[in-house]
Specification:
With 198 residues, this protein is of the alpha/beta class. It contains nine helices and seven strands; from the N terminus they run βαβααββααββαααβα. The strands form two sheets. Strands 2-5-1-6-7 form a five-stranded parallel beta sheet, with helices on both faces. A two-stranded antiparallel sheet has the order 3-4. Strand 3 and strand 4 form a beta hairpin.
């Protein structure tokens, strides 16, 4: 069976999680990088033992405290690379298991840093969620969970939206839910057409 692996990505506040749910609503199996990391960090998760060995202060009630890791990264520039060297292989293994177990003809990989990490190489096509920069900024700051400086720091680590759009197979404008849902359905019918003709 021919299978189509669709990547989904986009900067913070662009509406990626909402769009991933729209694909799931259409019956597409979704692998979510963020929720995988949360699972790995939770009590009993595969990342707990190696991370707590490397960073003992991060172990709180049998799980990894992301706040403690963030504080360590802020204080120690080498910490991020060490954390990534532990977590990335575990995330990759989880994704490989998802792909091996799924029998669907279309699957979605929801990965925030898809291009930055080179994961686009395992995708047959990539959908990028996008809104104008002022809308993105307002959405993130309206959540009340970070300061403008926090947001600027995150944006500095993400590939600019214009670059992502340039590399995308499809761009999904998430300014309205209706518009995004219409585009999701259009993308799926286009992929199904490709699979029929494969």
């Amino acid at each position: 069976m021919t299978r189509y692996v669709l990547g989904l990505t986009g900067g913070i506040g662009m509406g990626k999680s909402t769009t991933a749910r729209m694909f799931a609503d259409e019956g597409i199996p979704v692998w979510d990088a963020d929720s995988t990391v949360h699972r790995l960090y939770s009590a009993g998760g595969a990342a707990v033992a190696p991370l707590s060995q490397a960073f003992p202060e991060s172990l709180v009630s049998g799980a990894i405290d992301r706040g403690a890791l963030k504080a360590r990264i802020a204080a120690d520039p080498t910490a991020l690379k060490r954390i990534e060297s532990i977590v990335h292989p575990l995330v990759g293994q989880d994704r490989a298991e998802f792909l091996a177990q799924s029998t669907a003809d279309i699957v979605l990989l929801d990965i925030p840093l898809l291009f930055e990490g080179g994961s686009d190489r395992m995708c047959d096509g990539v959908a990028v969620v996008s809104v104008p920069a002022d809308v993105q900024r307002a959405r993130v700051l309206d959540r009340g969970t970070m300061t403008p400086a926090d947001l600027d720091r995150i944006l500095a680590n993400q590939m600019p939206d214009t670059d992502k759009r340039a590399r995308a197979t499809w761009v999904i404008d998430t300014s309205t839910l209706e518009g995004a849902r219409t585009k999701v359905r259009a993308i799926l019918s286009e992929i199904r057409e490709k699979l029929r003709n494969a």
